[in-house]
Hints:
Blueprint: E1 2-8, H1 11-18, E2 24-32, H2 41-45, E3 52-59, H3 66-75, E4 84-85, E5 88-89, E6 95-98, H4 102-116, E7 126-127, E8 133-135, H5 152-168
Parallel strand pairs: 6-7
Antiparallel strand pairs: 1-3, 1-6, 2-3, 2-8, 4-5
Amino acid sequence: MEQAIMAGGCFWCTEAVFQDLVGVSAVESGYIGGGIADPTYKQVCSGTTGHAEAIRVTFDPDVLSLDDLLDIHFATHDPTQLNRQGNDVGTQYRSALFPVGDAQRSAMEAAIVRAAEGRNAPIVTTIEGPAVWYPAEDYHQEYWNGEGQRNPYCLAVIPPKLAKLRKSYADKLKAG
């Protein structure tokens, strides 16, 4: 098993995309890339800690490659928006990748090049790190599967992301 850490806006929204992929055994929401230890959601939302809301995906690279994971990440958020995704504005919502090792850094650099093909705007996704991962509070984990399906914000943002996933990556989805 490997882990990949990606940020692409609200972690509630990115987490929902990766939970149903084959080869993914866990998706954890958390904070990374900031300047204080053990940040809270309230601190990160203030935009003053330097952390990004991110997800840490645990996956089997023999079933789902890192390249596929990264391509799905770029297809399900807007990597051309600097420090924002839709109505979420601030550095905590930046598009960023946090490699675990040099091989991942190279794969992430290549994924940015692939993501730029055919786009009219430049990719602003950064590759950052090394950085310390901090899991988000328990109530943020698997948010879409619980509270998120009653949250108007999530209901507006997540279904279009899931539709993109189903349309372009149906062969990468878990059965059922």
